């Protein structure tokens, strides 16, 4: 596991969902090495799907940008040490309330 406290960069999630995301990231880092970003993302995504319904997407890494459309109340971007995690439920429906976040860059190692 990476040492250090999670630092939330951007979110519109309820506090309880934020805590779920942080807890799952911590658990994933207990199971996987920090270099196994795909496995960490898969774990967090599948657990969030199980806990909060399907449609979640997760990106994990040390250096990435993003531009996503997400459902209202379903976005969090945070860092633990040098590892950045973006978790959101995607939204493609034109009638859904949408938010756009561009160029969220992970902390560089």
From TrEMBL:
<dbReference type="GO" id="GO:0007017">
    <property type="term" value="P:microtubule-based process"/>
</dbReference>
<dbReference type="Pfam" id="PF01221">
    <property type="entry name" value="Dynein_light"/>
</dbReference>
<dbReference type="GO" id="GO:0005868">
    <property type="term" value="C:cytoplasmic dynein complex"/>
</dbReference>
<dbReference type="InterPro" id="IPR037177">
    <property type="entry name" value="DLC_sf"/>
</dbReference>
<keyword id="KW-0243">Dynein</keyword>
<keyword id="KW-0505">Motor protein</keyword>
<dbReference type="GO" id="GO:0045505">
    <property type="term" value="F:dynein intermediate chain binding"/>
</dbReference>
<dbReference type="InterPro" id="IPR001372">
    <property type="entry name" value="Dynein_light_chain_typ-1/2"/>
</dbReference>
<keyword id="KW-0206">Cytoskeleton</keyword>
<keyword id="KW-0963">Cytoplasm</keyword>
<keyword id="KW-0493">Microtubule</keyword>
<comment type="similarity">
    <text>Belongs to the dynein light chain family.</text>
</comment>
<protein>
    <recommendedName>
        <fullName>Dynein light chain</fullName>
    </recommendedName>
</protein>
<dbReference type="GO" id="GO:0005874">
    <property type="term" value="C:microtubule"/>
</dbReference>
